[in-house]
Design a protein that fits this description.
heterodimer, A: mainly alpha, 2 domains, 8 helices, extended, B: mainly alpha, 0% strand
């Protein structure tokens, strides 16, 4: 489990660098480090489906962020000192530490235990019930396909929103002509 | 900047892209079609297919990739994927309920043709996700061009 803690430390360092660094391109690359470490953690925890989806979506997100931020002049904007924000930050970290001490004082369960009744049903019955060898696929597209429909609807709504806000209909004529050539 | 963007990147990038983009596309199709056998599925495979088109767009510029897959085509393909997924769900009503796996005993588990409607749902989701992400990418490129001209 040592490699998990190394990767978690890498993720925390990447997140802090992404917030604190001045250059936007460096911040995007630090966010990419966070996503890569999360994908390797999923792989070490024996969840290859989630690891594959995570690494692929992370690549797409980093490409989109680089294309969106590369030529902008947003880099040199500083917030200045905000004592109220620092006080609130320390207070919330303290509340979180106290809650963690109270919750975990009896020790944690070992990883993956206890196995719940519902999740014990799927590995036994999935292959006979759906014919899919990949149990994760049989869950998300057969037993819990209604959830997948909701997720697909969320993505569809997001794409419709982006295409509607940035549509070409409201542009002026010379921009349209420039866009077409 | 807009001229360089119209023509794509250097000849090294273009050559490497020409060699690898077909393999990336094929890998995405493999991930989609084997979603019920190996890790992966419609979502991850769809994003990989979209990434192959994004790779083409970044390397060769908008003019070349627009001939292959234009922005209006992404809307069409995405809507087709969504309608296909919903049609699979609604067809299950004939056999008992929403999302009933009505094709289920159609092959041995572990074969490519098995698992009933799950591969069809994977294909529908991959069309939807891939076209959606590529459409968002094309839209953001247009926005960036618009802003760089405004300066």
């Amino acid at each position: 489990m040592v490699e998990l803690y190394v990767l978690l430390g890498l993720m925390i360092a990447g997140a802090v660098i992404a917030i604190e660094v001045k250059n936007l391109l460096s911040a995007v690359i630090a966010v990419g480090v966070v996503g890569l470490a999360l994908s390797i953690i999923f792989l070490l925890l024996k969840a290859p489906d989630v690891a594959l989806t995570q690494i692929v979506v992370e690549i797409a997100a980093v490409i989109l962020l680089i294309r969106a931020t590369l030529h902008r002049d947003l880099a040199s904007r500083s917030c200045g000192g905000r004592p109220f924000g620092a006080v609130m930050g320390i207070m919330f970290i303290g509340i979180g530490a106290v809650a963690a001490l109270v919750t975990f004082s009896g020790g944690l369960n070992p990883f993956g235990h206890p196995l719940m009744t519902v999740s014990a049903f799927y590995p036994i019955n999935a292959i006979a019930g759906t014919g899919a060898v990949n149990v994760v696929s049989s869950i998300i597209l057969d037993y819990r396909a209604y959830d997948t429909l909701g997720e697909a609807t969320v993505l569809f709504t997001a794409v419709i929103g982006v295409l509607a806000v940035m549509r070409a209909t409201g542009k002026r004529d010379e921009e349209m002509k420039d866009d077409n050539e | 900047m807009s001229k360089e963007h119209g023509d794509g990147m250097s000849v090294i990038v273009k050559t490497v892209t020409r060699l690898t983009v077909g393999l990336i596309f094929l890998y995405g199709i493999y991930i989609v079609l084997h979603g019920h056998l190996t890790p992966g599925g419609g979502f991850a495979g769809g994003v990989i297919i979209a990434l192959s088109f994004i790779n083409l767009e970044l390397a060769f510029g908008k003019r070349t990739s627009g001939k292959i897959f234009s922005k209006s085509a992404t809307s069409l393909v995405e809507s087709f994927g969504a309608v296909m997924f919903l049609a699979i769900a609604l067809l299950g009503l004939q056999w008992g309920g929403f999302f009933t796996n009505f094709l289920h005993p159609d092959g041995d588990p572990g074969m490519l043709v098995s698992a009933g409607t799950i591969p069809l749902s994977n294909i529908a989701i991959s069309l939807k996700v891939g076209a959606g992400i590529f459409g968002i990418f094309l839209t953001l490129i247009v926005l960036q061009k618009f802003e760089s001209e405004k300066k």
